[in-house]
Design a protein that fits this description.
The complex is a heterodimer. Chain A has 8 helices and 12 strands. By secondary structure, chain A is α/β, with parallel strands linked by helices. Chain A has 2 domains: about 100 residues, no CATH class; about 130 residues, no CATH class. In chain A, strands 6-2-7-12 form a 4-stranded mixed beta sheet. In chain A, strands 8-11-9-10 form a 4-stranded mixed beta sheet. A two-stranded parallel sheet of chain A has the order 1-3. In chain A, a hairpin with a 6-residue loop joins strand 4 and strand 5. In chain A, about 50% of the residues are buried. Chain B is of the alpha/beta class. Chain B has one domain: Fe-S hydro-lyase, tartrate dehydratase beta-type, catalytic domain (fumarase, Alpha-Beta Barrel). Chain B contains 6 helices and 7 strands. The radius of gyration of chain B is 16 Å and the shape is globular. Chain B starts with 5 loop residues before the first strand and ends in a 6-residue tail after the last helix. The chains are: A alpha/beta, B alpha/beta. Chains A and B meet through helix 3 of A and helix 5 and helix 6 of B.
């Protein structure tokens, strides 16, 4: 048994909050640079240049890449040979969010009681925490600040088993088309298929933790990812929705077994400021 | 698409708005007011009650933004546009109050586009996700109303060469529709 003070979780969350929001990941940068070659629209190209320049400014001046520093979604993969000391995991994560969002001058975007008292909590808590138990004595902390604009353009559909892969493709295309310029394209499209109503959405969300260019390990699913990405980029939405060839930088699919009667499909849209950072404790 | 950006001063005058066309790149200079969901709801109440407004509404430009907090030495934090469609229900009353321009991202409703034509207004797009870059064109920022709303408070910004693009002009031009139509290959082999 390895003992781990929950303060370590707090510290990791605090630091990852600031880092994720101010320093863009290399895979995103490379994808934006590569998309400059594919983009034919002059306005679209100008937007891509702005986004690259924006990343440089954010990193150098230590200000957020996007003013919407998101709902803080934290994924914990906890080794079963760990015993935590010092309180509760949820509190430890929230304490890290509170400290990181305050010290890092990040925006506080969460309101309490969505229906009856939508008053800002002023520290961006609570975080959404997904915890998974895994073998070993390490903890992997992955933090994704998820913006509201792209989350708003996400959808879930309880399809019929008869709809098949063609139905999923149509649903993805409808979703991205309806979103247009709203979710800050070029976007990343996260797709979850199977499981239950809630689990399909979770699959779509975790697909967005992948690095751009990383294909599903199942060859058939990987082929669908390539095909559907190509289709999405025929929509013509382009960077910032001004029209162009680059509507999405990538498309990820995660699948899970489904009930014989159900066929849930979820599309979670990620914006051009895709922010994910991971640390192993 | 024109490649040379034009400098425009705010408040917007009708003769200037009439020279703007969808696709024009513009550098905005002068005063711009911020308001998003909650500030619009409060402005609407003030307007409907016939009360004084906390800003110079005539010819005004409203920027849909909730900035991140200003670190030491900066007037404001990152400040890119939020999605505009959420403010569509407030546009009629804002035009009535004297607003002429809006800055945001994403398409507007048919009603908003009609009002832009009829009221001789303009909708500018700023690049969503380019918040640190756009922050650099804001040289002064002060909260003028609804301080309790935090990031959603109404602010008076002084902007210098803020890069925007005309999306909807007062002639019915719509850059989103025109751009997507030009580059879509759906239904074509």
């Amino acid at each position: 048994m390895r003992e781990l003070d929950l303060y370590e979780i707090t510290r990791a969350v605090r630091e990852l909050s600031i880092e994720a929001n101010t320093v863009a990941n290399p895979d995103l940068r490379i994808a934006l640079e590569k998309s400059l070659d594919k983009e034919e629209s002059p306005a679209g190209k100008a937007v891509l240049h702005q986004l690259l320049q924006n990343q440089d400014i954010a990193r150098k001046e230590r200000i957020p890449i996007c003013q919407d520093t998101g709902f803080t979604v934290v994924f914990l993969r906890v080794g079963m040979d760990i015993r935590f000391t010092g309180g509760s995991i949820q509190d430890a994560v929230n304490e890290g969010v509170r400290a990181g969002y305050t010290e890092g001058f990040l925006r506080k975007s969460i309101v309490k009681d969505p229906l009856t008292h939508p008053v800002n909590t002023n520290d961006n808590t609570p975080a959404i925490v997904h915890t998974e138990l895994v073998p070993g004595d390490k903890v992997t902390v992955t933090l994704m600040p998820k913006g509201g604009g792209s989350e708003n353009m996400s959808r879930i559909k309880m399809m019929k088993p008869a709809d098949g892969t063609a139905g999923v493709k149509d649903f993805i295309l409808e979703t991205v088309q309806a979103a247009g310029g709203n979710p800050c394209p070029p976007v990343i499209v996260g797709v979850g298929v199977g499981g239950t109503f809630d689990y399909a959405a979770y699959l779509a969300k975790i697909s967005l933790l992948r690095k751009i260019g990383e294909r599903n390990s199942n060859q058939e699913i990987a082929d669908l990812e390539r095909e559907w990405l190509k289709e999405v980029n025929r929509l013509g939405i382009g960077p910032a929705g001004l029209g162009g060839r680059v509507t999405a930088l990538d498309l990820f699919v995660e699948v899970f077994p489904r009930h014989i009667a159900t066929f849930p499909a979820a599309v979670n849209i990620q914006c051009n400021a895709a922010r994910v950072k991971t640390r192993v404790l | 698409m024109k490649t040379m950006a034009r400098r425009i001063e705010t408040p917007l005058r009708e003769e200037i708005i009439k020279t703007l066309h969808a696709g024009d790149e513009v550098l905005l200079n002068g005063i711009v007011y911020t308001a998003r969901d909650m500030a619009h709801a409060r402005l609407k109440t003030l307007i409907e009650q016939g009360k004084n407004l906390p800003f110079e509404a005539v010819g005004s430009v409203i920027y849909y933004v909730g900035p991140s907090p200003a670190p030491a030495g900066r007037p404001i934090g990152s400040a890119g546009p939020t999605t505009s469609y959420r403010m569509d229900p407030f546009v009629p009353v804002m035009f009535k109050a004297g607003m002429r321009g809006m800055i945001g991202k994403g398409p507007r409703s048919e009603e908003v586009k009609r009002l832009i034509r009829e009221s001789c207004g303009v909708y500018f797009g700023a690049t969503g996700g380019a918040a640190a870059l756009l922050s650099g064109s804001i040289i002064k920022a002060e909260v003028i109303a609804f301080d309790d709303l935090g990031t959603e408070a109404m602010r008076r910004l002084v902007v210098k060469d803020m890069p925007v693009i005309v999306i909807n002009d007062c002639y019915g031009g719509d850059l989103y529709q025109e751009g997507i139509k030009k580059y879509s290959t759906m239904g074509k082999s």
